[in-house]
C-alpha cells in the first residue's frame, strides 16, 4: 500500500509544523509519509528541540524547509496549515485531496523568562499531539483498504 503524503505548513517551519511532523511520523507513520515546510524558513527553534526531546523525539535530522521545495514536485494527499499566516498565504498545491487548518498559538511569540517560554512551547506541543491523535482516529479509517 502506498502511503498518503501529508505536509504541515507554518510560517517559519521552526516550531509548530516541526512538532506536527514528528508526532504524525511516530503515531501515523504506518499510514502516512510526513513532511513539514514554512513560508519563510527560520531554522528550528532551540525550545522546539528541547520540548520534543523531553518526549523522546530527536530532531537532529530535521531542518527548516521552504514550501517551494515541494510545490509542483511532490503530490500531497493532505495539507495542514498550523498558523493563521500560513493559512492566508499558503500557495495552491494542485491535486490535494484534503486541506485542513489547525490554528495553534505561536510559542515563539511568548514573552518572559526562559521558563515561561518553555511552558508555552510545552502547551502547544501537547495541543498538537492531542490534535494529531484525534485526527488519526478518522484519517486512518480513510486510508485502510475496505475489507
Please outline the major beta sheet: 4 strands, parallel
Count every helix, treating DSSP H or I runs of 4 or more residues as helices.
Answer: 4
Order of helices and strands: EHEHEHEH
The CATH class designation is Alpha Beta
- Quickly give the structural class: alpha/beta
Give the overall form.
globular
What would you report as the Rg, rounded to the nearest angstrom?
A: 15 Å
CATH H-tier superfamily: Response regulator
Share in β-strands: 5-15%
Examine the coordinates and then state which fold CATH places here, giving the name of the CATH topology.
Rossmann fold
Number of domains: 1
DSSP helix fraction: 25-40%
Outline the low-pLDDT stretches. Answer: none
Which architecture name does CATH use? 3-Layer(aba) Sandwich
Q: What's this model, at a glance?
A:
This protein has one domain: Response regulator (Rossmann fold), CATH 3.40.50.
Descriptive notes:
There is one protein chain. The radius of gyration is 15 Å and the shape is globular. α1 links the parallel β1 and β2 (32-38). Helix content is 39%, strand content 15%. The chain is of the alpha/beta class. 35% of the residues are buried. Strands 2-1-3-4 form a four-stranded parallel β-sheet. The longest helix has 30 residues, at 114-143. The chain has helices at 16-28, 46-53, 84-89, 114-143, and strands at 4-10, 32-38, 78-81, 98-101. The protein starts with a strand and ends with a helix. The chain contains four helices and four strands. The model has no long low-confidence stretch (mean pLDDT 91). It has one domain (4-142): 3-Layer(aba) Sandwich (Rossmann fold).
Amino acid at each position: 500500500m502506498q502511503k498518503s503524503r501529508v505536509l504541515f505548513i507554518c510560517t517559519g517551519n521552526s516550531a509548530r509544523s516541526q512538532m506536527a511532523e514528528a508526532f504524525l511520523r511516530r503515531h501515523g507513520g504506518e499510514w502516512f509519509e510526513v513532511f513539514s515546510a514554512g513560508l519563510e524558513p527560520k531554522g528550528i527553534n532551540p525550545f522546539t528541540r528541547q520540548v520534543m526531546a523531553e518526549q523522546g523525539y530527536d530532531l537532529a535530522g530535521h531542518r527548516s524547509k521552504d514550501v517551494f521545495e515541494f510545490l509542483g514536485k511532490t503530490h500531497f494527499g493532505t495539507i495542514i496549515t498550523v498558523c493563521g499566516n500560513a493559512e492566508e498565504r499558503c500557495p495552491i498545491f494542485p491535486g490535494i485531496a484534503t486541506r485542513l487548518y489547525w490554528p495553534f498559538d505561536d510559542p515563539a511569540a511568548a514573552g518572559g523568562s526562559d521558563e515561561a517560554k518553555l511552558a508555552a512551547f510545552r502547551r502547544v506541543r501537547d495541543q498538537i499531539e492531542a490534535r494529531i491523535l484525534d485526527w488519526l482516529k478518522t484519517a486512518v479509517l480513510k486510508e485502510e483498504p475496505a475489507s
